[in-house]
Amino acid sequence: MKYSIIFRILLYLALAFTVINGWWFVSIPLIIIGIWLFSFKFEILIAGIVYDALFGMVGSMGVKGYIGTIVAVVILGSIYLLKKVVR
Question: What gap in Å lies between CA 55 and CA 5, rounded to an integer?
């Protein structure tokens, strides 16, 4: 099924809105939908970096400051493996 560019842009706008407002658990399902439907798979990685840039990445937090990016990489790898098994 071919998805239009308008749907993809709307998904990116919704994703940007949820990440900027700190609604990480709303953006995760949007990211998973984007990864599953489209071939470009860096939506979640970009969202994790943006989330960490806005709400983390403080030197004194250590690894905890980069949790958004770490979760993004884990979800990206999981979806990649799941798509291999399903398809």
Answer: 30
| Amino acid identity at 82 | L
The dihedrals phi and psi of 65, each to the nearest 5 degrees, come to: -70, -15
Structure tokens at 77: 């790898």
Any idea how long the chain is? 87
Distances (CA, A) of 4 to 1, 9, 22, 37: 10, 9, 27, 11
Residue 59 in this model has a pLDDT that exceeds 80: no
- Amino acid at site 34: G
DSSP track, 48-60: HHHHHHHH---GG
**More reliable by pLDDT, 39 or 1:** 39
